[in-house]
Amino acid sequence: MESSAVWPEPVVRVQSLSESGAPTIPDRYVKPESERPTTEVGGGAITTSGGSISIPVVDVSSPQDPSTARLVAAACRDWGFFQAVNHGVSRDLLRRARAAWRGFFRLPMAAKQRYANAPDTYQGYGSRLGVDPGAVLDWGDYFFLHVRPPHLLDPLKWPHLPPDLRETTEEYSREVASLCGRLLGAMSAGLGCGESRLQEAFGGAEGAGVCVRVNYYPRCPQPDLTLGLSSHSDPGGMTVLLADDRVRGLQVRRHGAGGGGWVTVDPVPDAFIVNVGDQIQVLTNAAYRSVEHRVTVSAADERLSLALFYNPRSDLPLAPMPELLLAAARPPLYRPMTFDQYRLYIRRRGPRGKAQVDSLATAAADDDDGCTSAAAATTAAADAAAT
């Protein structure tokens, strides 16, 4: 399966739809009733704000401290999400990064269109994920950039305006990628397999991939009918999100007694929201689990967030780490697959819950002898994308 080089239909910028003043949204953005943000899940949607149910907050000022590793590990096992405070990235840099990208999305449309993207790399200014024709779309625009490895970075896709955007984004990416390395060490130590083990599985600090997606969710006249980003788990390794400092919107799916539901995250000021991606779920044999999340939109306010993705080297076959397996008591749950192979699914289909990582687990369970290959994994992914 290969990613198409062109979008299946003309791309419409959601910002343009929002600024048109139309009182209703086009049918292409209306979600099925079961996916709308007001829908209850499993008997009761959880939409607490400041209540007793919330994702953990972890002080990561000393990531090598065993107590920090225990808290990070508990959050990754129980929630797949946590808010990292005292993370070492300066407040001034967070402010400058937000301001630069707000400035970009306020540029005239013609200036932004110079950086329009395509689905072969997604790098640049975009408004949809997936190339399935006729898909129901999300109410959001974005800008996607590769940072590492260097051969994927396209300098022509890095905006020249606002004047400080490039320098600020480069500095922001360096600082947050460094934080990711420290967090990965705490996650690894929390598994009991050594602080450097997950980083080694990623291909080492220099092998890890880094990319940035800036999300822009314009005001929406019918926010109860659509989503800024549909329910999905992140396909990569780890995501570090700088949420909007003025408008809430991120919801995390919580399973538990009573069926669970959607928890609306209240961002701690100047914190990062960290979540486990599918690749860490595979490497840890589901000791740490990626969790579905989605984004709601507002009729009153626009919303902007910056997500940095820290991913394993894209050509390494990934499978559960042997030291986390206990023969028949804890067999490997997933087939081997490279991240290059894995991410083709979302590039074709867009966000689809946890369909892909669950398909790997199903395929592994169906193996008679437990032996799999990257080639078989590719077939499994193609089969999943065709359903």
Structural class: alpha+beta
Written as H for each helix and E for each strand, in order along the chain, the element string is HEHEHHEEHHEEEEEEHEEHHHH
Work out the strand percent: 15-25%
Give the overall silhouette.
globular
Family: Belongs to the iron/ascorbate-dependent oxidoreductase family.
GO molecular function: jasmonic acid hydrolase; metal ion binding; oxidoreductase activity
Keywords: Iron, Jasmonic acid signaling pathway, Metal-binding, Oxidoreductase, Plant defense
GO biological process, one term: defense response
How does this model look, in words?
This protein has about 375 residues and is an alpha+beta fold. Helix content is about 30%, strand content about 15%. It contains eleven helices and twelve strands. It has helices at about 15-20, 65-80, 90-105, 110-115, 165-190, 195-200, 280-285, 340, 345-350, 355-365, 375-385; strands at about 55-60, 80-85, 125, 140-150, 210-215, 230, 240, 250-255, 260-265, 270-275, 295, 305-310. The protein has an eight-stranded mixed β-sheet with strand order 1-2-10-7-12-5-4-3. Strands 6-11-8-9 form a four-stranded antiparallel β-sheet, with no helix packed on it. Helix 2 (about 65-80) packs across helix 5 (about 165-190), helix 3 packs across helix 5 and helix 10 (about 355-365) packs across helix 11 (about 375-385). It is globular and about 60 Å long. The model is unreliable at about 40-50 and about 370-385 (pLDDT under 50).
